[in-house]
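Task card 7
Instruction: Convert sequence to structure tokens.
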Amino acid sequence: MQPPREFLRRILEAAHPLPDANSVEGARRMLAEVSALGADDAVLCLMSGGASSLLVAPLSGLTLEDKQLVNGALLAVLIERMTR
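Output:
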């Protein structure tokens, strides 16, 4: 069975554990793709671990740098606790 002609497959890469510009672009592209879907369309989205870094869409007033600072601080706490 062949997938429908409209079948799209995308592989997007971004940084981990700290997000980068590709993380923001990936989220933008994903949201643009799904915003055009209708009620009868289906989406299968597969992500490896680290989705909070791989797809980043900061709220209005926040920046990628804000997200990097928060992720970095949380990561530092996690590492500190693991090395006790």
